[in-house]
Amino acid sequence: MITVKARSLKEQEGRSSKEQTARSLGEQLGVAVAVMGRASTVLQHAPDLVDPVISGAMGLNEAYAVAQENKAKANSAEVQLARLREEDPALAERVVEGDLTLAGAWAERTERVEEDKRQRRVATRLLDELVPPLAQARGTRTFSRYDPAYASGTPITRETIGHAMTALSEMDRVWQERDLP
Question: Where is the region Disordered (predicted)?
């Protein structure tokens, strides 16, 4: 239990790629892989029992049985549907109406979450690339020296500038709403 807990703490610190596997740790310490697996299950599904196991107040097998029950409860259809209702009520309603299976709803939910993450990454990279150079151009002679003949892409027009001003206004509003620096 101590080994599994220590490995978990090191993984949380971002050092997991350098750490030994549970199998190699178990072999090195003379602990059966099955015992390491049980300890991992306790850590994941009954974390409140980790310290009692370490202190000897509770046996690993007893804690493992509780962890297995917790794991089964977490995976039950009712619990999954309740969690889906919290995270995405529209998808949960489609499941209740029979338009979508629970597994299908979770797959769709996962896909939506991943797409949202992808879009946030793309938007962040785009803003990181565009806004700092624009901010550096402020107060310089850059704007007065602009020549459409030298444009590498589509030349900038007043309409493009208007869209950029709208985008920067929207960006300022969002930054204020989110209390970003």
Answer: 1-23
